[in-house]
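Researcher: Quick test of sequence recovery. Tokens follow.
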């Protein structure tokens, strides 16, 4: 429970008893008088509010019939002028009428409902004894926390208690406080759970219900939950329903939950008895939005190019799945773009999510166009698309097309908020152009113009860098594979087939563009989970064929990679955290015909944990921690959906052998277990090594209990099959030692060496050196830093009209750019030299570490064998 106001003032003890006596009588009289006066004041306020006719020139909060505590709170938080939605809705809400509010993103809807909530409860003299007076339902935890923050900022002069119920904490802990709350900000699942289970939690006296981002609540599969919730609430309540976009579902919900509502905001604020959904959602007038056409394989390179030329901008980049965010973030961080990169997706622990959210809110922004601010980039799924109020975002990039026009509106709504300028750029594949433009047009999205990609940007190709990164770090390779699969999966799962077609994707080229050595083999439709209802029959056969044939056309090395036991789940899109308790009978929808990403989100088992931020807000003095050990909680990867499975998934590996998306997302205990098991495994294997003078990598089946098939390289270091499986093949392909050596040199000099570059093992020269070390065989580790563009080049980038509609610019894109050679030459570049040296040193250090590690492991193995 959080009292919005501070503790009530205590009277100081009076030393002089006589004086005290003398003063006592008048005090009693004064307090009675005061009470009567206050009562009259409140009644007057009520009358004013109920009969309030807003003046034509209504501009400020001060013009509204609001209570003193609310006015003081608004003043303290520096809210003076009303936004249009606030002007239109607050007077009506204050009259206790139901409101259906539709207003564009960033227009101030949060205050539009919080101000009436506070004032109406005040007018009704709500106190702790009255119980729950107002309930605000938000679709996501982040948004709930954000609303709660605003409530605290303006509610400090009221004496209501307020709470945040967003799951992640044990139900019991929350239950203890629930019954004492006057205002509750909650996510639907956990709220319903309390309504069903928590003794003493009574919403029977509820005065106001607020449904914020109603369309999103519905999209996320909370329709039944909401219906069940409404059943717990008194019919006499007032309901305020706000949303940036109005859909049929929203109007259904409005019919169900509102009584004679007044529709305010877009498209008009006319008073109506029946809500009419808007078909013309307006975007912020200060938004400039552009789209560019790009082939799928060029997307990442173009994004890189964009980031390098907008280093001072605060940017959000939207991807369609968690795995893509994880991969792009990990890979780009390795390439040092020169701007802080953050990642936010639903598979991250709640605490981490909140931390990232907080960091992005607090960082950079506002001056991106002038190049003076500190840039920051957030890679995110649609978890960040709605409701979240990140201040001063300069650019919203939609690297993957939004699933529909609503999502488009919400994504771009993260910029150009409340009159600030903002720019949005949508990447579209040629196959998506027609359908997406039509969908946006039908939804009334106007002003989107086609931009042109500058020649210089088109020349950037990250493939070689990515291959190099994957070669050095197998984790990145896994992430790449997963990103690839999850992208295809997200396309396949898209409902609007007139926009998204798996059949039209250049699958092989896309895999190459991610730096993958081949097309990961995937198949659709088999091995679906119980409860999943999309079977093979749902998948267009030609799509399956296309992907499978592309896969078989690629190098068959992947097939022989036995090591990873890739899990099949690729959670696409965002996922939200609320999973209603399995016992809460109303909550689980019977399987729909098509399971969307929201259905899967809904089914997530991971309840995650309370964040530090939440802990701070709730401030009940308990140790929140990360809650990893909380009963019923599972690691983020628990919820796997094998709708698409890798063919090699049937390699029978234990969980510990599976690659991790993000090992840091596992519990410390699990990470430790993984490490020690891997070390033991390696040590045992080391003890079975043949002489380290073998000339070629050879495959052995280690004769030990773990039965894991490994490959040993020239130095005798064991590798999982996926790391080196194709060495022989590649060796043959290159025509022996010389061929391999030439290949390695070419690659190091920045000459694209094709997808099999990862297999460019140096020939064994008997040196026994690590493959990624420099010098021993002429192989030079490529430098993955693209040179930063100087300010002239930045200007040049803009001149290239990449993100400017052609009609508005006549500047030439000619002139081309000199593509800088990568690799050794980059030592000369500013900053590049430093990184190069850093890389070299790092390589040496790694090598030394590896050697030490091997020695340690051999010693351990000998010890173990000795014991045996
Ligand atoms: N009257 C006001 N004066 C100044 N700033 C305001 C006012 N009302 C809201 N704001 C600010 O405008 C920003 C956007 O407000 P808010 O998050 O409520 O928008 P929203 O309409 O809910 O957006 P979305 O649909 O994206 O959730 C916030 O930073 C908020 O502090």
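Model:
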């Amino acid at each position: 429970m959080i009292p919005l106001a501070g503790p009530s003032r205590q009277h100081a003890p009076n030393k002089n008893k006589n004086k005290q006596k003398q003063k006592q009588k008048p005090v009693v009289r004064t307090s009675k008088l005061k009470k009567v006066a206050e009562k009259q004041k409140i009644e007057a306020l009520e009358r004013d509010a109920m009969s309030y006719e807003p003046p034509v020139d209504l501009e400020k909060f001060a013009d509204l019939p609001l209570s003193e505590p609310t006015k003081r709170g608004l003043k303290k938080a520096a809210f003076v002028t009303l936004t249009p939605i606030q002007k239109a809705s607050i007077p009506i809400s204050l009259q206790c009428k139901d409101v259906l509010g539709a207003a564009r993103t960033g227009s101030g809807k949060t205050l539009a409902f919080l101000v009436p909530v506070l004032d109406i409860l005040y007018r009704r003299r709500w106190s702790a004894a009255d119980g729950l007076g107002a309930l605000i339902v938000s679709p996501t935890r982040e948004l709930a926390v954000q609303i709660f923050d605003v409530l605290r900022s303006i509610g400090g002069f009221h004496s209501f208690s307020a709470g945040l119920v967003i799951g992640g904490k044990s139900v019991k802990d929350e239950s203890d406080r629930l019954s004492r709350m006057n205002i509750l900000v909650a996510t639907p699942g956990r709220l319903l759970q309390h309504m069903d289970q928590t003794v003493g939690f009574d919403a029977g006296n509820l005065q106001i219900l607020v449904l914020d981002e109603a369309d999103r609540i519905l999209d996320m599969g909370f329709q039944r939950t909401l219906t069940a919730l409404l059943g717990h609430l008194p019919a006499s309540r007032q309901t305020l329903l706000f949303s940036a976009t109005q859909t049929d579902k929203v109007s259904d919900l409005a019919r169900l939950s509102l009584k004679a509502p007044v529709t305010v905001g877009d498209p008009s604020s006319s008073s109506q008895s029946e809500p009419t959904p808007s078909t013309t959602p307006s975007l912020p007038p200060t938004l400039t939005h552009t789209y560019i056409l790009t082939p799928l394989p060029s997307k990442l390179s173009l994004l890189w190019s964009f980031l390098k030329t907008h280093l001072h901008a605060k940017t959000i980049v939207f991807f369609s799945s968690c795995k893509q965010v994880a991969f792009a973030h990990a890979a780009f961080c390795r390439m040092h773009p020169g701007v802080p990169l953050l990642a936010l997706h639903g598979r991250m622990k709640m605490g981490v999510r909140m931390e990232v959210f907080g960091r992005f809110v607090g960082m950079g922004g506002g001056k991106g166009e002038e190049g003076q601010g500190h840039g920051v980039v957030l890679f995110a799924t649609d978890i960040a698309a709605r409701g979240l109020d990140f201040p001063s975002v300069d650019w919203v990039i939609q690297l993957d097309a939004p699933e529909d026009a609503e999502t488009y509106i919400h994504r771009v709504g993260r910029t150009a908020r409340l009159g600030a300028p903002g720019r949005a750029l949508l990447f579209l594949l040629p196959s998506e152009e027609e359908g997406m433009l039509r969908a946006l047009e039908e939804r009334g999205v106007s002003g989107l113009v086609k931009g042109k990609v500058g020649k210089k940007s088109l020349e950037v190709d990250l493939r070689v860098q990515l291959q190099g990164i994957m070669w050095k770090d197998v984790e990145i390779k896994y992430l790449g594979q997963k990103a690839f699969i999850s992208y295809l999966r997200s396309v396949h799962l898209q409902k609007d087939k007139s926009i998204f077609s798996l059949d039209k994707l250049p699958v092989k080229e896309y895999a190459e563009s991610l730096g993958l050595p081949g097309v990961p083999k995937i198949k659709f439709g088999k091995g679906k989970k119980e409860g999943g209802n999309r079977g093979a029959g749902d998948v267009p056969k030609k799509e399956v064929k296309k992907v499978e044939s592309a896969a078989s056309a690629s190098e068959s090395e992947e097939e022989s990679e036995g090591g990873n036991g890739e899990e099949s789940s690729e959670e696409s899109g965002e996922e939200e955290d609320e999973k209603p308790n399995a016992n809460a009978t109303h909550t689980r929808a019977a399987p729909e015909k098509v399971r969307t990403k929201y259905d899967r989100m809904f089914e997530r088992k991971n309840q995650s944990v309370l964040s530090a931020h939440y802990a701070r807000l709730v401030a009940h003095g308990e140790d929140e921690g990360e809650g990893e050990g909380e009963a019923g909680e599972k690691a983020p990867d628990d919820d796997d959906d094998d709708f698409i499975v890798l063919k090699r998934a049937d390699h029978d590996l234990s969980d510990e052998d599976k690659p991790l998306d993000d090992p840091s997302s596992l519990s410390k205990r699990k990470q430790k277990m993984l490490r020690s098991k891997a070390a033991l495994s390696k040590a045992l294997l080391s003890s079975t090594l043949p002489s380290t003078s073998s000339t070629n990598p050879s495959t052995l089946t280690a004769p030990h209990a773990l039965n894991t098939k490994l490959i040993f390289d020239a130095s005798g270091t064991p590798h999982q099959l996926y790391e080196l499986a194709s060495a022989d093949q590649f060796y043959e392909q290159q025509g022996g030692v010389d061929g391999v050596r030439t290949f390695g040199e070419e690659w190091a000099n920045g000459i694209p060496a094709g997808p099999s570059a990862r297999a460019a093992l140096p020939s064994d020269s008997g040196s026994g050196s690590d493959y990624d070390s420099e010098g021993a065989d002429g192989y030079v580790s490529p430098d993955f830093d693209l040179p930063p563009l100087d300010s002239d080049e930045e200007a040049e980038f803009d001149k290239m009209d990449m993100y400017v509609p052609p009609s508005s610019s006549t500047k030439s894109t000619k002139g081309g750019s000199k593509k800088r050679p990568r690799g050794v030459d980059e030592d000369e570049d500013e900053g590049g030299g430093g990184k190069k040296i850093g890389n070299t040193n790092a390589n040496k250090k790694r090598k030394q570490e590896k050697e030490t590690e091997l020695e340690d492991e051999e010693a351990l193995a000998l010890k173990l064998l000795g014991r045996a």
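The mean pLDDT is 67.
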